[in-house]
Write a structure and sequence with these properties.
It is a single chain. The strands form two sheets. The protein has a two-stranded antiparallel sheet. With 108 residues, it is α+β, with helices and mostly antiparallel strands. It has a single domain, classed as Ribonuclease H-like superfamily/Ribonuclease H (Nucleotidyltransferase, domain 5), CATH 3.30.420. The longest helix is centred in the N-terminal third of the chain and has 14 residues. Helices cover 33% and strands 19% of the residues. One of its GO terms (biological process) is DNA integration. It comes from Xanthomonas arboricola pv. guizotiae. Pfam families: rve.
């Protein structure tokens, strides 16, 4: 079946933390962030994600509940930034890592 790759990269050290999941939903994304926080020996201050529904609410409704991924960021004092819509190169390090991992693992 299809698997979803979650990737976190430290921009300074280039340390990469990855997980494969059967689903790419907000609960999986929130747990992935918790796992990253536990895996690294330093404090995260900023997380940059795309605008997928696993990372952010699409609704601009001011009364909507905060997204669980944003809540995990807030609990740990992490700023959650989003890439510009339809500009994946804004998150170039992760896009490049995704390509490298895919080339190394996908059957041709």
């Amino acid at each position: 079946g299809k698997l979803y790759l979650f990737v976190a990269i430290d921009r300074t050290s280039k340390f990469a933390f990855t997980e494969l999941h059967a689903w790419a939903n907000k609960l999986v994304a929130a747990q992935f962030l918790r796992n990253v926080i536990q895996a690294v020996p330093y404090t995260l201050h900023t997380v940059l994600t795309d605008n997928g529904i696993q990372f952010t609410n699409r609704s601009s409704d001011q009364y909507a509940f905060p997204h669980i991924f944003s809540r995990v960021c807030e609990e740990h004092g992490i700023e959650h930034r989003l890439t510009k819509i339809k500009h994946p190169w804004t998150n170039g390090q992760v896009e490049r890592m995704n390509r490298t991992i895919k080339q190394a693992t996908v059957k041709r």
